[in-house]
Write a structure and sequence with these properties.
With about 625 residues, this protein is α+β, with helices and mostly antiparallel strands. About 40% of the residues lie in helices and about 15% in strands.
Length: about 625
């Protein structure tokens, strides 16, 4: 969900919870898909994907040679009403909304009303943010659009608007939720997706034009492009055409919750309307006979500029709310989106004048979107040449300078930064005279040298991975291909291995207390433990383990707006993360204080191991700021 932005917040929480139980450094192999030769074959294959992934419906548009080849729907927009998806069915397109924020600011820059390289504190001093590097590395408007300001992503309570009017003032949102606007590293160095930054960019449209951001975008772009019903607010026109939002399997209607950061994710549009955006980008800023923005502005949108990776020669990456992606041997541009019940994507390739739109009304399966993306790219590029940047050979000694373990250092959400710790980072090694990359335990994949410090995968068209030295002298790597490597710095391999071993051992001992408890509880019930003393030695470590298990149980029951509100599930998470450390310490104290001769040696050893494991895990949770976790207060 890195670029989807407004995907179901519950999935973000679950990714954190379940990361503890996932093997680090492993990637699922991509499923082999068919290669349709006609639109009808493509539609059938796409329908098979939707059925397999339990997605009710999809709105799809294909653009070839700059013209719409096909626009229509597959499946149901509303299951209960038996309403089929069509080219005109409206979807909430999530972070695709950001594209128009960037276009608006580029237009204002062309008119001399905005300078994208101006400092945020100069143009909007009323925006509360903290940047301890401001003197040398100020936050600039361009950083908001490229996600390089160093901001955190949304607080859980900032995601959904459950108590204010729909058009609640953006400036009041930023004043109420200030924690994400604390800069975590020097701006203009690392890319880390952050919705609040884009919403601030939307606020700058309002401050510059004196009108609501959505009104300006509607008047300057949506209607001139021919997007007649597309809009940010819910209107009578788009509500009548809106697909029902679904989640889960079997699909269950999930509703249309309001969000605070509207510029970043609240656009509603149909596949036919988003196809007009794709055509506009292919035509380099032209809609009909009107040149809405200059071709140079479109090119700037597609080009990352402010990260250390971009400054070191990586052409691919996240530009101005428009990012490049490598799939099927070609480089495409566009954006994904996700919001409750919907996930979406548009991509285009200006060199070959084709593109596509995919809008789905179930947010529970990212696999469906990825499969449909691959099918669309394969179909549209089947008759195109796919040249590759020539690779050259470097001596093994020269390659060794890049080798090492690289730990991720740009988490999207600081709350779940621990997920990056647990997923293992990236290993770069030299094997058989070639540089390779892998996860901690994954299969190495070759990286081919293409010049400077740039490398590409064997099937990739150009340099997708770049190495560079940071201002502090550390070696770092960023990749836009091979499933991407976020900004990562070279680090010791020993600590992640020790951490994984230690956490695995702790979880093993803690889980062992559960079957052990069944035995002694049964014996206690049948009266076989009448003379056994100090039951607290058994009970307290068991309660500590159970208090931690409450957390994933509650996480899996959170949905929608519940994430940022006080309810039984978020209260359970708070209580679990509060009592776990207390019971862990108490369990260790109890087992150490009981005289050795008054308790069975095996019981003592097991309780000591479980309590120690709980205390070690408490240390990890403390370092990750996950104790006494109040999601409604973040």
């Amino acid at each position: 969900m890195r670029r989807a932005g407004w995907s179901a917040a519950t999935l973000l929480l679950l990714s954190g919870a379940l990361a503890c139980f996932s093997p680090p450094g492993t990637a699922q192999p991509k499923e082999e898909l068919a290669h349709p030769k006609s639109v009808e074959e493509l539609k059938k294959t796409m329908k098979d994907v939707l059925d397999k992934e339990h997605v009710p419906g999809a709105g799809i548009a294909l653009i070839a040679n700059g013209k719409v080849l096909w626009c229509g729907g597959i499946g149901q927009a509303d299951i209960a009403a038996n309403r089929a998806v069509s080219c005109d069915t409206e979807f909430r397109v999530g972070s695709i909304s950001k594209t128009f924020v960037a276009l608006a600011l580029l237009k204002l820059q062309e008119e001399g009303k905005v300078n994208l390289y101006a400092r945020l504190q100069d143009v909007a001093p009323e925006i509360p943010f903290k940047n301890r590097w401001e003197a040398a590395h100020p936050v600039r408007i361009v950083n908001l659009l490229e996600h390089t300001a160093g901001f955190d992503d949304m607080e859980p309570s900032e995601v959904y608007n459950v108590r204010d009017r729909y058009d609640f003032s953006l400036i009041e949102v930023f004043r109420r939720f200030q924690e994400p606007q604390t800069v975590r590293w020097p701006p203009g160095t690392r890319m880390s997706y952050a919705n609040p930054g884009n919403a601030i960019a939307g606020y700058l449209i309002e401050k510059t034009t004196g009108e609501p951001f959505d009104q300006y975008i509607r008047e300057m772009f949506l209607r001139p492009m021919g997007m007649e019903h597309a809009d940010y607010p819910f209107t009578e026109a788009n509500k009548a055409l809106l697909a029902t939002a679904y989640e889960g399997n079997p699909p269950k209607a999930s509703g249309f919750p309001f969000i605070y950061l509207r510029p970043a994710g609240d656009l509603k549009a149909s596949p036919g309307e988003v196809a007009k955006l794709v055509q506009f980008l292919l035509r380099r800023g032209k809609a009909g006979d009107a040149q809405l923005v200059k071709p140079e502005s479109i090119l700037r949108m597609e080009t990352p500029e402010t990260t250390l990776a971009a400054k070191s020669g990586l052409r691919l990456g996240y530009g101005l709310c428009n990012y490049s992606s490598v799939e099927g041997g070609v480089v495409t541009h566009g954006h994904d989106g996700g919001i409750d019940g919907f996930i979406s994507s548009y991509r285009y390739m200006p060199e070959q004048n084709w593109g596509y739109v995919i809008l789905l009304n179930n947010d529970s399966t990212q696999q469906a979107l990825e499969s449909l993306n691959r099918l669309a790219i394969d179909f549209l590029s089947k008759d195109s040449l796919k040249p590759q940047q020539p690779a050259t050979t470097l001596p093994a000694k020269a390659l060794e300078m890049f080798a090492g373990y690289y730990a991720p250092r740009a988490p999207r959400s600081q709350l779940f930064a621990f997920v990056d710790d647990l997923t293992g980072g990236t290993r770069i090694r030299v094997a058989n005279g070639k540089l390779t990359r892998s996860g901690l335990f994954g299969r190495p994949e070759p990286l081919l040298y293409v010049g400077k410090t740039l490398f590409r995968g064997e099937k990739e068209p150009e340099g997708t991975t770049v190495f560079f030295v940071t201002d502090l002298g550390d070696m770092a790597v960023v990749s836009n291909g091979l499933d991407s490597i976020s900004y990562s710095e070279r680090s010791s391999l020993a600590w992640p291995l020790i951490r994984i071993a230690l956490l695995s051992l702790c979880l093993f001992f803690m889980v062992s207390s559960l079957p052990y408890a069944l035995i002694w509880l049964f014996l206690k019930l049948v009266g076989a433990m009448k003379d056994v003393r100090h039951l607290s030695v058994r009970v307290v470590p068991l309660l500590a383990t159970l208090s931690l298990l409450i957390v994933p149980f509650c996480l899996m029951r959170l949905s929608g707006a519940q994430i940022g509100s006080c309810n039984p599930w978020t209260a359970g998470i708070f209580l679990g993360t509060l009592f776990f450390p207390l019971l862990s310490i108490l369990g260790l104290v109890v087992v150490l204080r009981v005289p050795k001769e008054e308790i069975h040696r095996g019981v003592r050893i097991h309780s000591l191991l479980v309590s120690s494991a709980c205390c070690v895990l408490t240390g990890f949770l403390l370092s990750w700021h996950l104790l006494a976790l109040r999601l409604w207060a973040r």
